[in-house]
Amino acid sequence: MDERARIEMLAHALGSGVKTAGIELGIGDDAAVLEVGTRGGERIVWTIDEQVEGTHFRRDLASWQDVGWRSFMAAVSDVAAMGARAWCALAALALPDDVDDASLEEIARGQRAAADVAGAPIVGGNLARGPVLSIATTVLGACDHAVRRAGARPGDGLWLAGHVGLAAAGLRAIETGRTGDARLAPAVDSWRRPRARLDDGMAMSAIAHAAIDVSDGLARDVGHIAAASTVRVVFDETALRGDAALLEAAAALGVDALELALYGGEDYALAVASPIPIAGFRSIGYISVGAGLALLGADGERPLEPRGYDHFSAR
Amino acid sequence: MDERARIEMLAHALGSGVKTAGIELGIGDDAAVLEVGTRGGERIVWTIDEQVEGTHFRRDLASWQDVGWRSFMAAVSDVAAMGARAWCALAALALPDDVDDASLEEIARGQRAAADVAGAPIVGGNLARGPVLSIATTVLGACDHAVRRAGARPGDGLWLAGHVGLAAAGLRAIETGRTGDARLAPAVDSWRRPRARLDDGMAMSAIAHAAIDVSDGLARDVGHIAAASTVRVVFDETALRGDAALLEAAAALGVDALELALYGGEDYALAVASPIPIAGFRSIGYISVGAGLALLGADGERPLEPRGYDHFSAR
Predict the structure, then answer these.
(1) Under an 8 A CB cutoff, do A94 and B52 touch?
(2) What is the pLDDT of residue B22?
(3) Least Cα separation, residue B144 to chain A (angstroms)
(4) Residue B63: CA atoms inside 13 Å, Cβ hemisphere, count?
(5) Is B281 helix (H, G, I), strand (E, B) or coil?
(6) N or C: which end of chain B has fewer CB within 10 A?
(7) Beta strands in A1-132 (DSSP E)
(8) Which residues of chain B are within 8 Å of residue A210 when distances are taken between CB atoms?
(9) Distance from CA of B191 to the nearest CA of A (A)
(10) Contacting residues of A for B227, CB less than 8 Å apart
């Protein structure tokens, strides 16, 4: 298939049945064309994320559809973290020669399925040859008010929507060939098919003082809130251990649930600082005066490193 | 440098001194935040382009600043091709371990220089580790009316702003170590420092029936106009040969100027179909009834293949 045929195939695989407001021209021209007036909301939020083979996924551990799905959800999760609704997306793929057209179509089906769930159709993109497969996804969202990393105040609670550590447990299950263990099924699903928490993001947008999505691990990502807000964030160990699915997966793997919860990434949970409870979020700590992170356990409070998954220095 | 330090360095290197309307929040959060009201124009155009080492550039043939510059101009050129003005951009870089922090900063300086010329600051992005260097750039533009590939009509003239073939001559000069030849200097500069034709794009936007930027070669890209508009496009050989800089470079290299003009890419000229002349554009042919491409020479008209640079089937 030449480039034009590939783009036609992708336009077919990606083409959404849903008519989305404000999309005047989609795949197939130099750029997508969007109408501003019908989008709603006073502000646009705009993000880009890239998944690279070998760094973010391995072909032997994920289906092509999973690769497409995960790349989309990782990107749209940043829109959720701003408290915005997702509008539409573009995807740029670098393709090695050994990714054939059928595989590319499977990737596109995974992207499409994720885009449908997020309500944000893919309206364009780019194809390039490259020695390694990568998918860069850029997403536009709309909102009246964007929730930033900065803004958390001492006295706020720290609230979480979604699991943390479960996807990391799932990856470990996949890596060790234990996907058949029923206790690990929710974990495996969390890694293969994460879901950006767009509804939770919109629910918190008018209330939360600060927010972030957990892509690189809770400690690391909430560390960004602490740094940007110049506050101290204290995690409640009991609360972090209070996730039945995580406990079961950790037990099956013989690893510590707290380690998974603090340092495992790719669940795309939302962590927010808020003065009041928010529907769909559970309490996992609080904001105090100071800097950095701490863990409140049975023996009191101890400092915590904001480490996690860092593409450049950790792992 | 860890990821946070790298992002801080990039924010510094990329940060524009120019205050751009509508940018409420730039580099450093989950997403950039843009205000819709102050942007101007009824429509947004949105594009993504990716440059991959080995496919689009080689380290031994381009400086890091050139790599950054070229990646930005390749992306923003699509905004020019829609007749829009550039608004702002995000960039996602995949970085191998052997691209050190100083090299990354040079890349960012090249991006910044191009962004300044285009008037479109880089307001966010993504860093990931990868086995090969790639730069994905997404750009938003604004306009009242977007010019598409479809819309060319029989009787329109075919008009060109900028050179075609000159960048390809420049790449050949660089590959063969002939950058010291003064006759090749404009060609080498065209390849190293292409300029998206944003002003020409805005000049044609209210007049042209169809437009495209020439990234993969004139025949291939104008072939997209012919296909999308269901018309035949006839190039005038004499006009294509009437570019003094191209003729001089072709002579110095001992290659045919017409071959360079028809099939050489990466100049980012604009080719448009228009019923009347447009300031800054020169006539290079016309649109007729039918399909495909043709070349009108001294011996009459002959069909032309819409080939050029195709990442997947040619070269």
Answers:
(1) yes
(2) 72
(3) 10
(4) 14
(5) coil
(6) C
(7) 23-25, 32-35, 43-52, 85-95, 122-129
(8) none
(9) 19
(10) 4
Which residues on A lie below 8 Å from B3 (Cβ)? 310-313
Which of A2, A140, A310 lies closest to B312 in CB terms?
A: A2
Among B1, B78, B126, select the one facing A48 at the smallest CB separation.
B126
| CB within 8 Å of chain B, chain A residues 65-84 | 78-79, 81-82, 84
Secondary structure of A34-71 as H, E, C letters: EECCCCCCCEEEEEEEEEEECCCECCCCCCHHHHHHHH
Is A312 in CB contact (< 8 Å) with chain B? yes
| A31–B141 CB contact, under 8 Å | yes
Task: Please list every residue in chain B whose beta carbon sits closer than 8 Å to the beta carbon of residue A52.
Answer: 94, 128-131
Q: Take residue A251 and report the two structure tokens written for it.
A: 């037990």
- The pLDDT value recorded for residue B314 is 32
Q: What is the dihedral of CA A247, A248, A249, A250, to 10 degrees?
A: 50
CB contact residues (below 8 A), chain A span 184-203, against chain B: none
Residues of A in contact with B44 (CB under 8 A): 33-36
Residues of chain B with CATH 3.90.650.10: 157-304
Strands A85-95 and A134-143, sheet pairing: antiparallel
Residues A28-80: tens digit of each pLDDT: 777 788 777 655 567 889 999 999 999 898 988 999 999 999 999 999 999 99
User: Tell me, which fold does domain A157-304 have in CATH?
Assistant: Phosphoribosyl-aminoimidazole Synthetase; Chain A, domain 2 (3.90.650)
Note whether B86 and B76 are within 8 A (CB): yes
Q: How far apart are CA A73 and CA A68, in angstroms?
A: 9
> Confidence class of residue A245 from pLDDT cuts 50, 70 and 90?
very high
A206-234 tens-digit pLDDT: 999 999 999 999 999 999 999 999 999 99
Does A315 contact chain B (CB < 8 Å)?
A: no
User: Who's near A129: CB < 8 A, 6+ residues apart?
Assistant: A94, A95, A96, A97, B52, B55, B311, B312
Q: Please list the residue range(s) of chain A that carry CATH number 3.30.1330.10.
A: 3-143
User: The complex's ipTM?
Assistant: 0.92
- Which of B:6-35 have CB within 8 Å of A? 6, 24-25, 28-35
**Per-residue pLDDT tens for A170-215?**
999 999 999 999 999 999 999 999 999 999 999 999 999 999 999 9
Say if residue B41's pLDDT is above 70: no
Specify burial of residue B298 (Cβ count, 10 A radius: 0-12, 13-18, 19+). Answer: exposed
Residues 104-133 of B with CB under 8 A from A: 123-132
- Tell me the nearest-neighbour CA distance from B83 into chain A, angstroms: 11
**Rounded to an integer, what distance in angstroms lies between the CA atom of residue B6 and that of residue A312?**
9
Look-up of token digits 């580790």? B129
B11: buried, middle or exposed (CB in 10 Å: 19+, 13-18, 0-12)? middle
Alpha-carbon distance A238 to A294, whole Å? 13
Partner-chain residue, chosen from B29, B56, B311, that has the shortest CB–CB distance to A149 = B29
Tell which residue, A90, A89, A98, A87, has the closest CA to residue A64.
Answer: A98
Give the pLDDT of residue A314. Answer: 32
- For residue B206, give the DSSP letter: T
